[in-house]
Structure formats: C-alpha cells, structure tokens
Automatic annotation (TrEMBL):
Name used for this protein in its record: Membrane-associated tyrosine- and threonine-specific cdc2-inhibitory kinase wee-1.3
Keyword Hydrolase assigned: no
The organism's taxonomic lineage, starting at the top: Eukaryota, Metazoa, Ecdysozoa, Nematoda, Chromadorea
Reactions performed catalytically: L-seryl-[protein] + ATP = O-phospho-L-seryl-[protein] + ADP + H(+); L-threonyl-[protein] + ATP = O-phospho-L-threonyl-[protein] + ADP + H(+)
Entry's transmembrane regions: 307-326, 347-367
One GO CC term on file: nucleus
Top-level EC class: transferase
UniProt source species: Nippostrongylus brasiliensis (Rat hookworm)
Superkingdom in the source lineage: Eukaryota
GO biological process, one term: meiotic cell cycle
Length: 369
C-alpha cells in the first residue's frame, strides 16, 4: 500500500502508464531503474535512477528502515515539508515528489553530476575562477532561503552539488530551520567542522549560515583539512586564520572569506550585502548570463523528447492519409487490368488496417502532448 505524503503523487500513481497495483511489486521497482548508488548515510541510501514513466533521470533518497513510530515519521518528513516550502531556484536542488511505501520514505529530486566534496577530493586545487562561480551560486542559494526565513544550518561541501556544466546547487534540507515556525534546535545535528561558534550556545541565525559559507569557501580554496574540535577549531573561529592558508589566493577572495567568518555574528555581512560587494558584483553579470543559458538548455533538453514525439505523430497524421489515397488509386488502376486474388485482398485490408491504427495512435499522441 502506497501512502502519499504532502504531494499529489497519489494522482500520479493512479494515472501512471507503468505502475500496476495487481503485480504486487513496489511502485519504486516498477517505475524506476536503479543505475548507480550515489551514497549512504544516516538518512538512508541515495541512488541515481531512470524513470520509465518520462524517460528522465533523477536522484532518489530511500530511508534505510521503516518508520519506528509516528514521531519518527514526522521527523523524517521534515525534509519533504521544507522542500515544498521552497519556491524553485536554479541554485537549489529541485524537489519533485515524495512517497511512502511499506513504511519507508522515498524522496525524488534533481540529479546532479557530483557533490562539491567529491569534486574537491578529485582535483584538490580548484581554479579561482571556478571558486568565484561556486561562491556566487552558493550565496544566491542561501540568499533565497533567507528571504523565505529559512536557515540551511548544514552548509558544507557534502551538501553542495555540481551539475555536469558546473552549476552549483545547495541540497539536503533535512536539518533546515524555519524561523517562523521552528522553536527547538539541536546543534549536535550539524557538522562541527562548519558550524559557527555561537551556534553551540544559542539558536541558529542567518549569520551562522553566512559563517558556514565562508568556511566552506575557505576549505575549497585552500584544500585544508578542517578540524572538528581542538585548538585549531577555536583559533579559526576567533578570527586568527593563519596567513599561510591564503598563499596564492587573491586579496579580494581572502578578504571576503575572512569577512564571512568574522567571530562576531553582527560583523558578518548578510547574503545580500556579500552579493553587493564590488568583487562579487562585478562577476555577477557574466555568471547570470551563463545561468540563463543553462536554464534555456535544461528546458530545451527536457522538452526535446516531447517535441520529437509530437513531430513524428504529426508526420504520421499528414503522410498516412496521402499513402492511403495513393494506395487506393493504385489498387483502382490494378482493378481495371486484373482481378485480384484472395491473398491480395487480405494483404490490402491488413495494410489499410495498420495505417488506420497508426493514424489513431498518432492522433491520441498529439492530444496527449
């Protein structure tokens, strides 16, 4: 039995051309093909999947275990709720739908090429031009969250993703904090390597997210191994970042990282202020143009399959009547010269039936599109 949570997936399943409840196999197994495993954590398993319904590829997160209780179910559905609160943004991983099956939660999202953590682990040294693009995209993503009074709380390279054309997207909204509705927060849930110092003793603020952006960019820029505790952890958060970390880093990037990581939350910029800084603002037009191009290409690629199917169906509607007409003329001409035998009549009837069936199919395809 499939229970749909918060989304209209119940309707989607009811009209699915693939799902058959009489088979007794899960919706996920019937409608999706697992292509590879993306990762596993306390949340569950993540897979890259191919959807048989629309021919597109997605990422799906599946809980490892069934819900232990109604309280456990409510806790695990928080990410779904937060996803649905968010207006779409090019720098946020897009949420599509979620469902429960046999007590396990499935979350279907946009599929990205890799995480920023994997990218940095592979390359180690990231060109500064790419770092600026990551910086701008990440600031825009968090700025979008903050404008909706939402805090991510868990910003780190592992939760930042890159598409194949290097668009940076913030994801994993399991710990997101709603400033309007949430009251309780457990700081132990976040990753200590990226936490702002004040979060250990108080509720998170927008300034805490800004700090996490700064220390994330610090790690990406310098390829240092951030500590999760100890003297160096406190030294970095007291504003005493060793100059050797910034060897070969431009003055503007160094200045911005230190600004975002200011020990005093009130001294940190907001995301809007950071985006207005001259060093970033001067790079935004080029980045915006690239992201606009990316949006167009994504839209075109998503619609290409439907367009091709529409063109094929239209071609059938236009061509088949002519074929049937000329076939009728040919048969009429043959009737004058010869008398058809039984096999010829059967072939002609069968051929016309096939043409008619294809014509009807093409008509319904066009109506559906």
């Amino acid at each position: 039995m499939i229970t749909v949570s918060y989304t209209c997936l119940r309707c989607i399943i009811a009209h699915s051309p693939i799902y058959n409840p009489n088979l007794g196999t899960p919706y996920f197994e019937q409608c999706y093909t697992v292509e590879r495993k993306l990762g596993q954590g306390s949340f569950g398993e993540a897979y890259a999947v191919y959807c048989k319904e629309d021919g597109r590829r997605y990422a799906v997160k599946r809980a490892l275990d069934s819900f232990r209780s109604s309280a456990d179910r409510t806790l695990k559905l928080r990410e779904v709720q937060k996803h649905e609160l968010l207006p779409k943004h090019i720098n946020l991983v897009q949420f599509y739908k979620a469902w429960e099956e046999n007590g396990r939660l499935y979350i279907l999202t946009e599929l990205c090429e890799r995480s920023l953590l994997d990218y940095c682990t592979e390359l180690h040294i990231i060109p500064e031009g790419e770092i600026w693009n990551i910086f701008i995209d990440l600031l825009r993503a968090v700025d979008h969250l903050h404008k909706n009074d939402l805090l991510h709380v868990d910003i780190k390279p592992e939760n930042i993703f890159l598409t194949k054309d290097k668009v940076c997207k913030l994801g994993d909204f399991g710990l997101i904090f709603d400033l309007k509705n949430d009251t309780a927060y457990t700081p132990e849930e976040g990753d200590a390597k990226y936490l702002a110092p004040e979060v250990l003793n108080a509720a998170p603020t927008k300034a805490a997210d800004v700090f996490s952006i700064g220390i994330t960019i610090l790690e990406v820029t310098t390829d240092i191994d951030l500590p999760s505790r100890g003297d160096t952890w406190h030294q970095i958060r007291s504003g005493h970042i060793p100059d050797r970390f910034f060897k070969g880093v431009s003055k503007d990037l160094t200045r911005l990282i230190k600004w975002l990581m200011s020990p005093d939350p009130c001294s940190r910029p907001t995301t809007s202020q950071a985006l207005s800084d001259a060093a970033i603002a001067s790079r935004i037009p080029v980045r915006s143009a690239y992201l606009a191009y990316h949006r167009v290409m994504v839209t075109v690629s998503e619609q290409l399959g439907s367009v091709l199917l529409w063109l094929v169906a239209l071609a059938h509607l236009l061509v088949i009547p002519f074929l049937m007409f000329f076939d009728a003329l040919r048969r009429k001409k043959n009737d004058v010269c010869t008398t058809p035998y039984k096999g010829t009549v059967y072939f002609t009837v069968r051929n016309n039936f096939v043409h008619f069936a294809v014509l009807v199919f093409a008509f319904f395809v066009l109506v559906r599109l």
